[in-house]
Design goal:
The protein has helices at 4-7, 14-17, 19-34, 47-53, 75-92, 104-115, 141-145, 162-172, 190-200, 212-216, 253-264, 270-283, 286-308, 334-343, 371-375, 380-395, 400-416, and strands at 36-37, 64-65, 68-69, 96-98, 121-125, 147-151, 176-180, 203-207, 229-233, 244-248, 312-313, 322-326, 346-347, 349-351, 365-369. It is an alpha/beta fold. It folds into 2 domains: 52-283, Aspartate Aminotransferase, domain 2; 286-415, Aspartate Aminotransferase, domain 1. α4 (47-53) runs antiparallel to α12 (270-283), α8 (162-172) packs parallel to α9 (190-200) and α16 (380-395) runs antiparallel to α17 (400-416). It binds D-serine.
Length: 428
């Protein structure tokens, strides 16, 4: 019998062990390199983050918390997790941090599980107006386990109206209010939400998943001083690994930690926790402040450029990293536009607009964001060009010659702002 060490090698690279998968990894590197990613919830994590996330920490079980584990051999991962905790607390000025949630939904689930009883009332933003699945969508666990009441945006301004939130809060007396969105281009007034929460005796959760990088870089007001709990993913504007974290006041520390483990998760993904530690380190650098400010400046210029090509933006513009184009007056769907843009190398996503008459798989909107293209180093000049290229595609959706020209220009732009030059999984 040959020793399995030789037949199942531990040391060989993926290109040797699994050429099929290696080719797919390589194809994805090239897709991200050659296309321009305009989905506002996506970004390009640094090679350092990817390296930590792809590390041997993936092998380690570490149920529990630093120095209180259910497994031996946690000497190193204890230090890794503590590093991530200390860094994220410092980054956002938090009293307590839990860095174990594997996703934004898991983080919100842990907050609900720690703060609520089954059936309690929660007030949150309607998914159809820009909220999130885990903010009480009826098929999601949140909508099934708790009694969600939803606020939306004002029909005319398409902005949140705190007077409406206040009225709903007074009427329904929620135990928890959720402030945060996955498709909202305006500044969220966390202080205003906190005032309402205080008035009705509710706890306040700030879900800053989309804007965490802007908050870290001082480009959006922080929810931290105003909220009992703050949740976030790490892969969006914060530019970390795919994962999440919870911040909270010290009084909620025990409830949040117990709700996360053993409440809703078992073994934490320690490789991802390591990626988060790198991400929090990077986000604490002065250069990250510049990055966050540039993300917002770029979004403002991209929005202006789209508007000057006669495209209507939901709420009339943007204050943050994203914008949603309303295609209603063009009689186009978000699905068709996003698909055609992708053919041109511009990767955005179809998105419902408030009061949309089309279904979420079709939609009247398409959503754009600047975190990923700003990570490539693009600035305002490139945003003006991109706005025009997007408008060219939308304005001539069936014109193959225009699509080909735009695709060529996108390739040139991508090549001028290269990424992952040394990342290679397989020969081309
Ligand atoms: N699905 C994410 C987004 O694209 O905004 C939110 O989790």
């Amino acid at each position: 019998m040959p020793p399995t060490r030789d037949t199942l090698p531990l040391e060989a690279p993926v290109a040797t062990v699994d050429p099929v998968l290696a080719a797919l990894l390589q194809e994805e590197v090239e897709r991200q390199r050659d296309d321009l990613i305009l989905i506002p919830s996506e970004n390009h994590a640094s090679v350092a983050v990817l390296e930590a996330q792809g590390s041997v920490l993936s092998n380690k079980y570490a149920e529990g918390y630093p120095r209180a584990r259910y497994y031996n051999g946690c000497r190193v991962v204890d230090q890794v997790e503590q590093l991530a905790i200390d860094r994220v607390k410092e980054l956002f000025g938090a009293e307590h941090a839990n860095v174990q949630p594997a996703s934004g939904t898991a983080a919100n689930m842990a907050v609900y599980y720690g703060a609520l009883e089954h059936g309690d009332t929660v007030l949150a933003m309607d998914l159809n107006h820009g909220g999130h699945l885990s903010h009480g969508q009826k098929l999601n666990f949140s909508g099934r386990q708790y009694h969600f009441v939803h606020y939306g945006v004002d029909r005319d301004s398409e902005c949140l109206d705190l007077a409406t939130v206040r009225t709903l809060a007074q009427e329904h007396r929620p135990k928890l209010i959720v402030a945060g969105a996955s498709s909202y281009a305006r500044t969220i007034d966390f202080a205003g939400f906190a005032e309402i929460a205080r008035e009705v005796g509710a706890l306040l959760l700030g879900d800053m998943a989309h804007i965490a990088g802007l908050v870290a870089g001082g480009a959006h007001p922080s929810p931290l001083p105003h909220c009992d709990f703050v949740t976030s993913t790490t892969q969006k504007s914060l530019r970390g690994p795919r994962g999440a974290f919870i911040l909270c006041k010290a009084t909620h520390q025990k409830a949040i930690d117990r709700a996360t483990f053993p409440g809703v998760q078992a073994g934490p993904l320690m490789n991802t926790v390591a990626g988060k530690a790198v991400c929090f380190h990077e986000a604490g650098q002065p250069a990250f402040r510049e990055y966050a400010q540039q993300v917002v400046r770029n979004a403002a210029v991209l929005a202006e450029s789209l508007q000057s090509a006669d495209l209507r933006l939901v709420s009339g513009g943007t204050d943050n990293h994203m914008m949603v184009v309303d295609l209603t007056s063009r009689s186009l769907t978000g699905r068709d536009v996003a698909d055609r843009l992708e053919e041109a190398g511009l990767v955005a996503n179809k998105n419902v607009i408030p009061f949309d008459h089309l279904k979420p798989r079709v939609t009247s909107g398409v959503r754009f964001g600047t975190p990923a293209i700003t990570s490539r180093g693009m600035g305002e000049d490139e945003m003006r060009v991109l706005g025009q290229l997007i408008a060219d595609v939308i304005g001539h959706l069936d014109d193959d010659a225009i699509l080909e020209r735009v695709r060529g220009r996108v390739r040139e732009l991508a090549a001028s702002f290269p990424i992952y030059s040394d990342v290679r999984y397989a020969a081309k």
